[in-house]
Specification:
alpha+beta, Arc Repressor Mutant, subunit A, 2 domains, four-stranded antiparallel beta sheet, 4 helices, elongated, binds zinc ion
Length: 140
C-alpha cells in the first residue's frame, strides 16, 4: 500500500467525528466503526502513537477522549490560526481584525484568497484560506 510519509494524513471524517468520542474505552473495532475507517488504518496509527492500552489478554483498548486528543495533535496546523472567514491578521495593526465586506477570490483548487478592509486601520488586508474549511463561503 501507500508507503508515503510517516506523517498521518487523517481522513476528514476522522477529524470531524473524533471529538464526539466518549471518555471511555473502545475496542479498535468500535473506534473504526465510530470513525468509519479500516482496522488496518487504525493499526497503523496505533504504531505511530495513538494512545492505547492492553489488558491482560493482550486486547487493545482505546480511550475515546485520548484518541480525540491525538487526532487534534496530528492535525495541528503550522499556522495556528482559528480565524473566522471574516477575519484576518492585519500587518499594520499587528492583530487580528474583522474585515469589512470580505471578498473571496479563488486561487486554485481548494485555495481562496480572502480580501477585505481592516476595521481598525482601514487598510486592505488579505489572507489565504482553504475553501473546504470555510464552507459558508464556498458558494459566494
Ligand atoms: Zn489594520
Amino acid at each position: 500500500m501507500e508507503e508515503k510519509s510517516r506523517r498521518n494524513k487523517l481522513p476528514h471524517t476522522v477529524i470531524v467525528k473524533a471529538p464526539g468520542l466518549l471518555p471511555m474505552l473502545y475496542t479498535p473495532r468500535e473506534i473504526c466503526e465510530e470513525l468509519d475507517i479500516a482496522e488496518s488504518t487504525l493499526r497503523d496509527w496505533l504504531q505511530t502513537g495513538v494512545p492505547h492500552q492492553r489488558d491482560n489478554r493482550n486486547r487493545i483498548w482505546i480511550n475515546g477522549e485520548s484518541f480525540a486528543g491525538w487526532v487534534d495533535g496530528q492535525r495541528k496546523p503550522k499556522t495556528v490560526s482559528k480565524l473566522n472567514e471574516d477575519e484576518a491578521y492585519c500587518m499594520h495593526c499587528n492583530q487580528v481584525s474583522k474585515l469589512i465586506s470580505p471578498q473571496i477570490h479563488p486561487i486554485k483548487g481548494n485555495l481562496v484568497l480572502i480580501k477585505g478592509t481592516c476595521t481598525i486601520c482601514g487598510n486592505i488586508i488579505n489572507r489565504g484560506a482553504h475553501r473546504d474549511r470555510t464552507p459558508e463561503l464556498s458558494q459566494n
